[in-house]
Every structure is written in C-alpha cells, then in structure tokens.
Amino acid sequence: MQTFLRHKLLLVFSGLVVAGLVWYGLAPSSELPNLDSTPTAEGSSKASPGIVATLLTLRAVKLDATIFSQTTFTQLKDFSTDIVSEPVGRPNPFAPLTSPSTSNTQTQTPANR
Hints:
Strand content: under 5%
Number of strands: 0
Largest sheet: none
Distance between the termini: 78 Å
Shape: extended
Radius of gyration: 36 Å
Oligomer: single chain
C-alpha cells in the first residue's frame, strides 16, 4: 500500500501516457479521403499515364510457342494423379439424421458371420 502511495504520481503519468498512445493509435488519420466521395476527373488523370505505360509495355510482349516443340519440353513427365470418383453423400449434409426402420432388414454384425 505504501509503495502505491509513493509512486502514485508515476502511475498516473504512466496511465496518461498509455491512454494517449491508445487514443493516438485509434484516431483516424486526416490524410485518408472520404469513402463516400467520388473521385474527380482530375484524380483519374493522374493515374492514367501509369496505366497507359503499363498497357503499352504489355502490348509489346511477344509470346513464342516454340518452347512447346523443344525436346526438353516434350521429355517432361506428368506426375499428376488420377481423381478417383467417390460416392455421393447425402443431398443435404446439414439435415438431421433420421434412423431407417430396421424391422424388415437384418444387419449383419461380426457375431452373425
């Protein structure tokens, strides 16, 4: 108890610093634009030269299909596995389970074999 009284000022100051840091971290920054505002034509023209340059660079790319006829490509082995067809489960897996009537059918247990 005496330790608390001696260091009360330090604890209050530390609490204020922590509260200030939390407030600063949770406060929205004023640099972000509002989401409900629509961009103006001026804002879209700034991004246009970059997009145009990227599109021109992509247009200049030429694809060569001769790699598929090279011997190194044709010697590649296919290690994929076949997909085994599985039986289809219940139509609605989330429907409650209902017990079928077992009065007419006999189930074979290990004791009956």
